[in-house]
Amino acid sequence: MKIEVKVHPKAKREKVEEKGDFLEVWVNEPPEVGKANRRVVELIARHFGVPKSNVSILSGHRGRKKLLEVKNA
After folding, report:
1. HSE on the CB side for 72, CA within 13 Å?
2. Most C-beta atoms within 10 A of its C-beta, which of 20, 36, 46, 71?
3. pTM given for the model
């Protein structure tokens, strides 16, 4: 399944919210050297109850809007 995600880095609290046809993800990590991306993958995996290896970023590695693929969700 492919999911559009809007990321909010350097947030005070981490959470995942469903907003219609996309997800909003707040992460504590800063957007540098892939730290925020790794945390987004961890939170999305936990949200859908799948291993981190089943979540991959297809596009948007350097932006706030990303397209993720979640396998076996």
Report:
1. 9
2. 36
3. 0.91
8 A C-beta contact, residue 27 and residue 40: yes
- Sequence-distant (6+) residues with CB within 8 A of 41 are 52, 55, 56, 57, 68
Distance, in Å, from the CA atom of 62 to the CA atom of 66, rounded to the nearest integer, reads 9
- Go through the domains of the chain in sequence order and give each one's CATH number: 2-70 (3.30.1200.10)
Distance CA 40, CA 45 (A): 8
